[in-house]
């Protein structure tokens, strides 16, 4: 983006293009994935992503790279992510018992966070020796490695039988379960608000760090790696925290006590300001990852298996719908009121979202329920 001389609005548009497919395909994806083997869907999405990412360096080498192509790649890559995530959410419960979902999700997320730390740390070296285009080619190869890894999994899922023949009826059934359940609905509202705030500042973050905070471009990747360490910490803390405090109570405490650290990020600047930014970003990432592990595991074990792909896709659709809105809002505010002021607005909003569980059925629970309500009572 810096190479093409993009401004805050262009950066917001690119980020929005990544998440826009959730608005267009998020709901039907849950139905379509429910009819197909989950592993095959995930492999196909990885292969498609590899081809898309490889097209960027090829265009760059021939001098034809444009913002239009970047937007197209971002959008189509987002389509692959929609179907991959819908399949991924339903595939783990086929491999792991319900009581092992938090540990399984924590290991997957922790491994991803560790890879992100290593990847961001190596990114500078890769770009230095291979150039920006070569770096994206390495990213494309990583999708091929992911596809090959999935091929090594022996367990194969069979498509779930769906009684209803029409697409809209199946979508409606999943949404009805999602919106009528008080716990899933509460998580839905929290996730939508949090993602809006997160993407509101993340869409302008590289520009903020370089142009407003005065941090050298070469250090931006290192700061991102430092923040990604929070993902590793959050994944390591998820299981012991839930065992000690309970899944519901532990989530509440983390949201109320950790998300306010995000207010340190707008103070970023040379010297001590860099330390404040690292503390704030690391804390936010740790809280987000931990909550995603707990709430994702809850949805996987709580939702009836025949509805899981549709409920998961419906939840991700609603939550992801706010992401392009947040990205576009962040970009527009960056143009109107400045980058640092926008950071204050969005991190302040993120802090407020941490209080939402206090206004939901989760406020008095120690443990999240294990089965849906029956006659208004929770079994768990």
TL;DR of this structure?
The chain crosses the membrane at residues 12-33, 40-62, 125-151, 183-204, 216-238, 250-269, 275-295, 307-329, 341-359. This protein has 380 residues and is mostly helical.
- Give the integer mean of the pLDDT values: 84
| Separation, N- and C-terminal Cα atoms | 49 Å
Q: Specify Rg, calculated over alpha carbons.
A: 21 Å
Sheet of most strands: none
Please give a structural write-up.
It is a single chain. The protein has 380 residues and is an all-alpha fold. It has a single domain (8-153, 168-364), classed as Up-down Bundle (Growth Hormone, Chain: A), CATH 1.20.1250.20. 77% of the residues lie in helices and 0% in strands. It is built from twelve helices and no strands. α1 packs antiparallel against α11, α5 crosses α11 (308-337) and α6 (182-202) runs parallel beside α11. Residues 375-380 have low confidence and may be disordered.
